[in-house]
Request: fold
Amino acid sequence: MRIGIAGTNRETKTRLAALLAKTLNLPSLTGIEEEEARLLGVHETSDTALAVKHRVQVLSRLIGEEERLGRFVTDLTVVDCLAKWESGGLSKYDPGAGKAHESTCLGRAGRYDLLVYVPGDGAADIP
Reply:
């Protein structure tokens, strides 16, 4: 089973992913975005080239980990990766990479057995 938790509420997504992973006895795939940010030294950056590199590395790592595990619960999905790419305006910066990023994300979105959306207003907070 491949379960993805999508949305903007990071803390809620992580807690929900951990709870589902434990309940369903599945590996939990969390923290990719933060790990890649640390590796690149990216926090809040205005360097668009670095932001593009970060987003590409996050997507690549996510895909690699999903393939390696086969079954999992993740708090970061390809849907999130595409949304962050678009909200960061990175397609305007690098249209070719943007088309490739979009194609990869949309092509992989259907690979989840279950994709859960967690709204960003905290309405789905998990105790």
Helices lie at 10-24, 32-40, 48-69, 78-87, 90-93, 95-109.
